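Morning. Coffee machine broken again, so started the prediction first thing and wrote up yesterday's gels while waiting. Chain of 185 residues, entered below exactly as on the submission form.
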Amino acid sequence: MTLSSSRNDSPPSPSAARSGPLTDFPAARIVWALTRISIGWVFLWAFLDKTFGLGHETPAAGAWLEGGHPTEGFLSKAARGPLQGFYNGLAGHAVIDWLFMLGLLGIGAALILGIAMRVAAGAGALMLVMMWGAALPPENNIFMDDHLVYALVLVGLALVHAGDTLGLGAWWSRLGLVRKFPFLR
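Came back before lunch.
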């Protein structure tokens, strides 16, 4: 679905291409959809690896299902900067582990499916900004890193209705509950 009020799957005329939104182009919608799915996979993979200890970042012995604490390693060892004490205090608490893991799963699934994009973008951006804040200053820049870039991309994905292409976003937006509570879009 485009940002305009009508859908047109044919490429805009050359004059419209200069004045219309870039999401009028089918190729642009596909790129945004693939970006959405890719970032969704980043979140979902983190959930799977931490849950089952698939060995990429989490060894089998450290899996959540084996009693590991998915927030402990990063928050207790990698946190640094002015907020280090705050994040160290959150590390390994069961409530924080559950919130983190449900966030990874929910954000990843919503992005891959293209549903609840506003909620997923907001929650994902918040999680990413918190991860950024846990490791200040960033290693390669005075303030900018990939967490902030991903957060901005998530907001952009929601704004261009990226869930409507190669996803269930258009169907989702027609549900009665979503029409009643548009923030669920």
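Confidence is low (pLDDT under 50) at residues 1-19. Going to sketch it on the whiteboard this afternoon.
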